[in-house]
Each structure stands twice: as C-alpha cells, then as structure tokens.
Here is the input.
Amino acid sequence: MKENKLFPDYIFESSWEVCNKVGGIYTVLSTRAKTLQDKINDHIIFIGPDCWNEQKNPYFVEDQKLLAKWKKSASEKDGLKLKVGRWNIPGKPIAILVDFKPYFEIKDQIYGKVWELFKVDSLHAYGDYDEASMFSYAVALVIKSFYNFFKLDGQKVVYHANEWMTGLGLLWLQHEIPQIASVFTTHATSIGRSIAGNNKPLYDYLFAYNGDQMAEELNIQSKHSIEKQTAKYVDCFTTVSEITANECKELLDKPVDVVLPNGFENNFVPKGATFTKKRRAARKCLLNVANALMGTDLDDDTLIISTSGRYEFHNKGIDVYIEALNRLLRDRDLKRNVVAFIEVPGWVGDPRKDLTERLELNMPFDTPLEVPMITHWLHNMSHDNVLGMLKYYNMWNQKDDKVKLIFLPCYLTGNDGIFNMTYYDLVLGNDLCIYPSYYEPWGYTPLEAIAFKVPCITTDLAGFGLWANSVKGGYSEISDGVKVIHRTDYNYSEVADAIKDTVAAFSNMTEAEVKQCRTNAEKLSKKALWSEFIKYYEDAYDIALRHAGERIKKDNK
Here is the structure.
C-alpha cells in the first residue's frame, strides 16, 4: 500500500438508486455511505433522480436550510430544480435529488455533443436510455454548479458514477471540468446481462464474442456504446468482481483498473435477545401465511427456505431453484417438511382477499385456497414464468407433498398487505437461502443472508461465490456457512441435483451442526464489512486523482 495515496477532499457519487430503492446498487451505496461520511463528513455528496415528484420519499429527508445559498444560486443562475437534504440511512449523508425532465427538450443537442466528443452512439436509443441520459446530464450540471459556487479549484474532487445510466454525464463533465477526477463502476455490463438473459451461453464463448456485434444483434447498441466509451475515457474504470472484470475486458475491450467488491454494514442486524425474538416472529409469520394459503398445519420444525432478488428467471437461477425443489419432492433423504419461498417482485396486482380473510380469522384451515402457490394476484397470471413452471411440473402444494413452494411476488417493504414485514425482518426467519445464479456480478442477497446467520447456497458464477471460495481456499461447503456450487453454461441438471442434495443433507444435520453452520455463516459475513473493503475504493480514488492530474498537466502544456 502506497503511503502517499491521494484521497479526495470531496466525493460526488451518483446512481439512479440514490434515495430510490429499486435494486442491489441501493444496498452498495447506502451501506458504504457511513464509512465515507466518517472519513470526510458532509464532503461525500450523493446525487439521485427526483422521481417521487410531490409524493413523500421514505428514503429522503429534505432540509430547506442545508446548502441553501448554493441551492438558490443553482436555481436562479443555472436553472436547476433540486431538492437538498439527507439520505435516510446510517451516516445520514447529504443527498441532492435533481429533476431531469427539463433536459428532454435539448436531448438531441446533448447527444450530438457527446457523439462529437466521445463517439457515443445514441441513434438506436429506446426505452429507459433517454431518461437515464438526461438524469446523468442533470447530475453533471449539479456538480458543475456546486464546484463553481464553492470555488473547489485546487481541491481534490472525485466524481464516482455507477452503471451505464450515469455515463453520458460523466463524459460531459470530464470535458467541462477536467480537474474533476472520474471513477466509473459497471455493476454488470449491459451486454453481458443481455447475452445471459437471452439464454445464450456467456462463459464458454466469452473470448469469442464481439461486444459491438452482440449489442447490434440484441438491439442494445446505445446502452453498450455509452458503457464502452465511458470505460475507455474515465480516469478509473472499476467493477465489482473478477468474473465481471473478465467480462469487461472481453466485451467492452477495456480491462478494469480496480475491482471493488461489495461490502456492507451489519448495523441493521439485531443482536442477542432481539435477534431471537425477531427470528421467532419471522418464522411465525411465514408459517401462518403458508398454512392459511395451503390449508396445512406446518409447525416450527418445518425447514423454511427462500430465494430472492430481481425477477430474472434464468440469470438469477429461479428456474434451477424450482427444478431442485421438484426433485427434492422425491428424495428419500429429506427428513423434514420444506416450505420454500420465491421472493421476487413480479407484475403484482392486489394482495389476495381470500388469504387476508383467513389470516384475520387466525384459525386453522384444512382445505387449500384456489391456486395455493401465490400470495398476491398478478396482472399476468397465465404468462408468468414461475407459475408456468410450477404448472408444468404439477407442483400444486398437495397436502402430502413434503416440499411446498410459495411465490411472493412483491417488494417486502412492510406494507404488502399479507406479510407486512420488511425483507430484513423476514429473511432471518429462514433456515437456508438459495441463490443459484447463472449471471451475478456480485450477489448481495447471499451476503445479507449470512449476516443474519442464515447459511446459503450460491454458485461460482456469482462474484460473492468466488469470494467465499477465495476465503476458504477451495470450494466452500454448507458447513462453512456457504455452499458454492460449480456452475457452467451447460450443467443445469447437475446444479439442481447439488441443491437438492445440500438441502436434504441440511435437513439431517443435528441441532449442534446447524448452530455451528449458522455461526460460520455470520463469521464469514464479517470479512465482507466495508471496513475491510473500503481500501479498494481508496485505490480507485488515488488512480483517478493521479490520472486527472496528468490530464491537466498535458492540457496546460
């Protein structure tokens, strides 16, 4: 480690998920914020989209007095529409939400300029490309306004942009204020995700794929172009795991400068008696819903399992999860009843009235409800992947089935109408979590699970799985707290069997073995705290500041 490592005086960081909880990047930024806030109090400033409009944003607390003079100037001189306040997370960092809608009027001029300067192809844009690009442009305007108002020339300033959605603004800002050092993190390449999501083999053919050609074939040229050009021109290009670093090199034609593994803070994990009480409450809630839905009398000895994350049926391994549970139905080694949940947000409609009525009555029922595999109605019941696969395998949660599977198709924010508990309050009720990902640059869900002492199963195609193996120095087993299964483009059936066998083996563990397994899971999670991983960010800031310094010297010659 260099002793004279450069560290920023100011860090601006942007993402579509700042104060906007829609995916895993929210967890990356919100859990890391306190570590940076402790280092440079209120000089870490997060910028997100103002997409809540007049509705109350539960993640953001506006403060009219905070940076009030600059906000007035930004509004009057620079025409910016902003909300300034604090992100409602540990560390309470400053957050700025910007209204990006006014820039749609000049988007063609912006696209023309970025093509002229950086050869970014926006001609094939569709869907969320315009929205993301106008947001990223607005972020750049916010930083420029702040930089000029507070006269930050001579200060070490870093702008850290996350995902292709922030690339256009990063490039524009680098041209406008070259003194600002830039860091760009791709959490998953748009082209890699698209190849995997379209059921094309990604890993065996990675060396042979041409990223530009595949982007054209899969109709994502503009997203791929902004990501590739940002990676090329940024001061420090980063990603979250070795597996995605390889993807960047092959598909974006640019090796990363640093790998930034995703850590977390465990201050949201309850301790001692509170943990025990919450675990009991979570299990009771999960079993109550299961029993009311299926007309069963599953007791606390039931093995409670779940998978969760984005609804990417193939990429997240939801398909192989169902396959494994179907095979488990006929496994003679399974010694306990299993209720398995799929907690992924689908096109959800209303909570089931018939289910809420049963839950309110709080009494046992011996007949199942109609469609006893789902807790909330969907808008597309006949075209849903999960329900379609359950129907194909005739998995109707029959009374005598030792394995029952329930689809919970909504975000667990505490007000879903059935469980009414948050994800973190429910996850600790599990005995085992399963994330058999095919495409997973990092994998927060298994890391969160083990933080709550829940052992989990993942694969070596997830960055987290590779990291767990590196800590073990070999393939991690369920007794270590995390079972890492070898996964390739073509071994779907073997993965399903490995999951089935691991669950069956877990059902046979003694109480002492399970306790040790849970202890090992928690121990491993502590090796992924931000206090352990922030050093990689320090490396990235140092590289960016040095490259920006060289750029300024060159420009001044």
In short: The longest strand covers residues 44-49. The mean pLDDT is 96. The CA atoms of residues 384 and 492 lie 21 Å apart. DSSP finds 19 helices and 17 strands in the chain.
